[in-house]
């Protein structure tokens, strides 16, 4: 018996480092649950190989999400460190306020 985890994300969702870390934790927890069931002896010998393969795939998915989260964090730090970023954000806010007041 394997634990199914939904990997589908909504199309409007922009992945963030936190969402990647959350997915990583879900897959690590699923892999741990397989490990706990295996050590408790609740997995029959006939299903042991499939359970171990499932556990390995969960660990690989968790590692992939960890890498994606670190990649997103680096990109966000780089964008935040660029000199014009703060000015662009402030400029957008000022334009939004002006358009709201003028409307």
Approximately how much beta-strand content do the residues carry? under 5%
Number of helices: 3
Low-confidence stretches: none
Give the structural class.
mainly alpha
Summed over residues and divided by their number, the pLDDT gives a mean of: 83
Give the CA-based shape: elongated
Roughly how many Å apart are the termini?
60 Å
Number of domains: 1
Q: Please outline the major beta sheet.
A: none
Total number of strands: 0
Q: List SSEs in N-to-C order.
A: HHH
* Structural Rg: 22 Å
Q: Tell me the helix content.
A: over 70%
Q: How would you sum up this structure, described in words?
A:
The chain has one domain. The chain has helices at 17-40, 45-81, 83-102. It has 3 helices and no strands. α1 packs antiparallel against α2. The chain is 79% helix and 0% strand. The protein is mainly α and 103 residues long.
